[in-house]
């Protein structure tokens, strides 16, 4: 394990034991004051570029004061969906003492060698955005707590972005875009492929950090996500030479061609459940196509994506890939509405997706939306039972506490197999070990936040109240260190009405509804009777039935006898309220991150 640069590692150490939402000082001020006091231990392995690291004739961004005020807010939000805002917001604290030479630029950064202690890395990444190639303090000087959902402890503080931070990031991205787009496509592709290689060196580090901040088990979830992240960059890097146009047989005296051109600055808004993969699915195709990006990270999981941004900024020119943390209304909304953002790509809830879409409509810019799901899994009478049960465990993402938009949360089992299926499913989920996400023995980690925990519990209560039979599986961890963790026992509902809330709405938790069926047409109809249309699976050895079901199911991603997660080169995205547009393929890169320019050369 590489040593951390100590100066940044001091960030949250003094905060241990503090209550959530307690007012805190953003950690950079401590760093700077350490440096100012000449503490040599605060020296760092790598100097950071200034916010304007030299763009030729490009003007520097207006220097901003280092901390206009210091204050800390809890990440806890007032409920869910659009308009949710930070609760316990504190007024800005007293102005920080400005350190000589600091202009809001974080003059030091964590080592770029893999850092395998996720707690140390979390502290090192505290209190900054990454804008224009530099780790910078938030303009307003506010931070919010990042909580380990397995213990309730504060592990770091994240910069709370506002419109001012977003503006700096977008301007940096805009300045960088022309030169980035003018690079030969294959050169960009090679850089992206190198990003993939570099990220592979960090799989373990990133897996541990994302396990710490999201509560997803390292072995079953987080490490896997970290490796797919690298693959996404490698894949899109290899597609660079496919950014080609066509020649058009318009007139023999004219050379008529189309060119694929980038859109400009892309705003990418990501959620917390699979932050690395979902970010990569957006930024890798956007970058290789010649766009530059500003990512708004999810307030629950701001650290690992920031680390990825830091790693990749060692390869990419400044301003090409920027990241701002903060909440939706404070940082996400200004990103979408910023006049220089020419494309928005969003993954999150349907409610927020609608808000994003409306703002984009006002600006007349294209959007890609990946929203919710309530994915059906249909098991026919001839299905291989063991294989189908394996598929249900994997598809329901029990190891991720069901926090997946593709979760197979409605399982329709033919009456002939129903009882055996239920018993085996219960036994399989019972056998999953719930515990510390960083422990290699753990299969299931935690739910992300107290709000999400309460929301899932509310759905479980509604299911019970509807008269459904409720079966709780697995067992809560007994380790006292995890007593405050957001562990939740998976629930299987049987005999549940199709219109009961957990059967109809997206729970985003470890709650699955099992239905018994006998009529094929009726089960297809039931599966399609949902506002969502993201994913579906069919389990049968009857090829004819399999094909018929795949044709009739209203979903963007249909699989037979398997339940794979998203992978590069598999088109991913939904129909109905599950979203607009697809991701992860060559076509998605061309359609969503370029426009076609027609050029006619009259040779007469
Ligand atoms: P979830 O409930 O899963 O967090 P959201 O849709 O609320 O889903 O959040 C997904 C992402 O959208 C997060 O990064 C969040 O901060 C962001 N977001 C929330 N509200 C807005 C908004 N009004 N405008 C832009 N982004 C937003």
TrEMBL record:
Question: Which residue intervals are annotated with compositional bias (Polar residues) in the record?
Answer: 26-42
Q: Name one GO molecular function term.
A: betaine-aldehyde dehydrogenase (NAD+) activity
The Aldehyde dehydrogenase domain, residue ranges: 142-599
Residue ranges annotated as compositionally biased, kind Gly residues, are 11-20
Per the UniProt record, which EC number(s) apply here? Answer: 1.2.1.8
What Gene3D superfamilies does the entry give?
A: Aldehyde Dehydrogenase, Chain A, domain 1, Aldehyde Dehydrogenase, Chain A, domain 2
Q: Which residues form the active site?
A: 370
Keywords attached to this entry: Oxidoreductase
- Alphabetized PROSITE patterns for the sequence: ALDEHYDE_DEHYDR_CYS (PS00070), ALDEHYDE_DEHYDR_GLU (PS00687)
Q: Cite the residue spans of the region called Disordered.
A: 11-104
What would be one Pfam family of this protein? Answer: Aldedh
* Sequence similarity: Belongs to the aldehyde dehydrogenase family.
Q: Which PANTHER family match?
A: ALDEHYDE DEHYDROGENASE-RELATED
Task: From the Swiss-Prot or TrEMBL record, give the protein name.
Answer: Betaine aldehyde dehydrogenase
């Amino acid at each position: 394990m590489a040593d951390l640069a100590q100066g940044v590692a001091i960030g949250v150490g003094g905060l241990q034991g503090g209550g959530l939402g307690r007012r805190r000082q953003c950690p950079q001020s401590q760093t700077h004051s350490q440096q100012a006091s000449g503490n040599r231990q605060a020296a760092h392995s790598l100097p950071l570029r200034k916010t304007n690291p030299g763009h030729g004739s490009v003007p520097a961004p207006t220097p901003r004061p280092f901390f206009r005020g210091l204050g800390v807010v809890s990440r806890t939000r007032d409920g869910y969906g659009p308009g949710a805002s930070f609760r316990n917001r504190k007024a800005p604290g007293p102005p920080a003492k400005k350190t000589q030479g600091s202009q809001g630029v974080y003059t030091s950064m964590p080592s770029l060698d893999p850092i395998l202690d996720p707690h140390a890395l979390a502290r090192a990444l505290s209190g900054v955005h990454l804008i224009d190639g530099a780790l910078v303090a938030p303009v307003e000087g506010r931070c919010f707590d990042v909580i380990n959902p397995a213990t309730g402890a504060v592990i770091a503080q994240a910069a709370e972005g506002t419109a001012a931070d977003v503006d700096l990031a977008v301007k940096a991205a805009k300045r960088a875009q022309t030169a980035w787009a003018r690079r030969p496509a294959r050169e960009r592709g090679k850089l992206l492929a190198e990003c993939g290689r570099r990220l592979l060196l960090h799989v373990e580090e990133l897996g541990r950090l994302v396990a710490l901040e999201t509560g997803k088990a390292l072995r079953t979830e987080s490490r896997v996500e970290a490796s797919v992240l690298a693959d996404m960059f490698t894949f899109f890097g290899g597609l660079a030479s496919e950014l080609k146009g066509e020649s058009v047989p318009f007139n023999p005296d004219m050379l008529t061609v189309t060119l694929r051109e980038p859109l400009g600055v892309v705003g990418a808004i990501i959620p917390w459940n699979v932050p690395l993969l979902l970010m990569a699915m957006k930024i890798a195709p956007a970058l290789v196509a010649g766009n530059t990006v500003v990512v708004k990270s999810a307030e629950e999981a701001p650290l690992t994506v920031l680390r990825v941004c830091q790693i990749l900024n060692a390869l990419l020119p400044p301003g090409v890939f920027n990241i701002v943390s903060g909440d939706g209304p404070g940082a996400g909304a200004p990103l979408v509405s910023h006049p220089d953002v020419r494309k928005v790509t969003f993954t999150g809830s349907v409610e927020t997706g609608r808000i994003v879409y409306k703002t984009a409509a006002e600006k007349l810019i294209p959007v890609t939306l990946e929203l919710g799901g309530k994915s059906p899994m249909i098991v026919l009478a001839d299905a291989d039972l063991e294989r189908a049960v394996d598929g249900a465990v994997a598809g329901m993402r029990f190891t991720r506490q069901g926090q997946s938009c593709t979760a197979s949360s409605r399982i329709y089992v033919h009456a002939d197999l129903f009882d055996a299926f239920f018993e085996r499913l219960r036994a399989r989920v019972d056998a999953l070990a719930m515990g510390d996400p960083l422990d290699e023995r753990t299969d299931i980690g935690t739910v992300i936040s107290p709000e999400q925990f309460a929301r899932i519990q509310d759905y479980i209560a509604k299911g019970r109240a509807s008269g459904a039979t409720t079966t709780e599986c697995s067992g809560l961890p007994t380790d006292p260190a995890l007593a405050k963790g957001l562990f939740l026992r998976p629930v299987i509902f049987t005999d549940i009405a199709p219109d009961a809330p957990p059967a109809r709405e997206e729970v985003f938790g470890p709650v699955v509804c099992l239905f018994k069926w006998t009529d094929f047409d009726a089960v297809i109809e039931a599966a399609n009777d949902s506002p969502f249309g993201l994913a579906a699976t069919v389990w049968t050895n009857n090829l004819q039935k399999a094909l018929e079901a795949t044709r009739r199911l209203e979903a963007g991603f249909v699989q037979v006898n398997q339940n794979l997660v998203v992978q590069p080169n598999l088109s991913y995205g939904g129909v109905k309220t599950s979203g607009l547009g697809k991701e992860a393929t060559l076509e998605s890169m061309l359609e969503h991150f370029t426009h076609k320019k027609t050029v006619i050369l009259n040779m007469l």
